[in-house]
Amino acid sequence: MSARAAAAPLIAVTSGEPAGIGPELCVRLAERRWPARVVVLGDLALIRDRAAAIGSPAPVRPWQADAMPEPGTLEVLHQPLAAPSRPGRLDPANGAYVLGLLERAIAGCLAGEFAAMVTAPVHKGVICEGLGAAAAMPFSGHTEYLAARTGTPRVVMMLVGGGLRVALVTTHLPLAAVAAAITPAAVEDTLRILHADLMRHFGLPAPRILVAGLNPHAGEGGHMGREEIDVILPVLEKLRAEGMQLVGPLPADTLFVPHTLAQGDAVLAMYHDQGLPVLKHASFGGGVNVTLGLPIVRTSVDHGTALDLAGSGRADPGSLFAAVDLAITMAAARAA
Question: What are the binding positions for a divalent metal cation in this chain (predicted)?
Fold first, then answer.
């Protein structure tokens, strides 16, 4: 292997659902010069077809570990499709193919072959239908699958964009189930993971975390709910005694004003739609989903498969570019 190839950190990008916009967004990675080596995991013919469909001039080449490509070339680590794929037309036969991309990226990250992995969007229904009863575990999403495959008991979803970092205690739960899920253990575990990974992956020696309350006005002294008093505050006091810099619980309706945000490095929201609407307003199309708590670095786009745009060349690569940028930064911080 050449010295240049050996020195460049290698970032694996899974191309996701083959009928969606993932493959063509991956083609557009060749438009930029990255401070790392980026390799796309996917079917070589599929990626070449999508490059032609969107009029990309980038050469698409099979990945060769021992030779750096010319600038503007897209490297593809070939993983064969199970069935032919057409833009916008889902085929459950390719569910195993999509999971195979994840398996290859996870294995490479755990072995030290890849410095980080970035994931293009998948379609959960196709994967579940395609695997059916043969699935070793139900697929509920990238995050849960990565946690299971790496043996990680708890992971934390954090979105980054628009100058914000917003992590969540609970993720995809009905609103009626959120309060019961806000337990002392859930809040404490999430804060410990968030604090540790802000140091490990973002280079923050003493992270400052702004913690939202659950109820309007953070419960207003118990008049609008006692979760702040009975659950959240005792955890914050315990962790402050250990040296963590935690502010809150704060009313969510005023937490995201510039003056308050300036006092923290990240926000911890109690539930999905408490924190993410603000972040997506500030960064939609350029936000990044980060999975904290894993033994590997993983980032992802903040959007779905957009089947209606597949093959059109009109899909915005901003979120994928941002996800690759952040993966490189996190991998470098981890290695330092």
Answer: 172, 217, 272
Asked if residue 143 belongs to a known ligand binding site, the reply is yes
pTM, whole model, 2 decimals? 0.91
Q: Round to whole Å and give the CA distance between 183 and 28.
A: 43
In this predicted model, what pLDDT tens digit does every residue of 95-151 receive, in sequence order? 999 999 999 999 999 999 999 999 999 988 777 765 554 555 566 678 888 998 999
SS3 state of residue 111? coil
The half-sphere exposure of 252 on its side-chain side, counting CA atoms within 13 A, is 22
Mind listing the domains of the chain with CATH numbers? Answer: 1-152+294-336 (3.40.718.10), 153-293 (3.40.718.10)
289 carries a ligand binding annotation = yes
pLDDT number for residue 311 = 93
For 333, the 3-state DSSP assignment is: helix
What pLDDT is attached to residue 324? 98
The response to whether 217 counts as a known ligand-binding position is yes
What is the residue-wise DSSP string for 113-148? S-SEEEE----HHHHHHHHGGG-SS----HHHHHHH
β-partners of residue 266 are: 209
At 7-37, the pLDDT tens digits run 679 999 999 999 999 999 999 999 999 999 9
H helix or E strand, kind and range, residue 249:
strand 245-250
The two tokens of residue 105 are 């990226």
- The answer on whether 142 is annotated among ligand-binding residues is yes
Tell which phi-psi region holds residue 5, choosing left (phi > 0), alpha (psi between -120 and 50) or beta: alpha
- The tokens of 209 are what? 């975390």
pLDDT of residue 137: 55
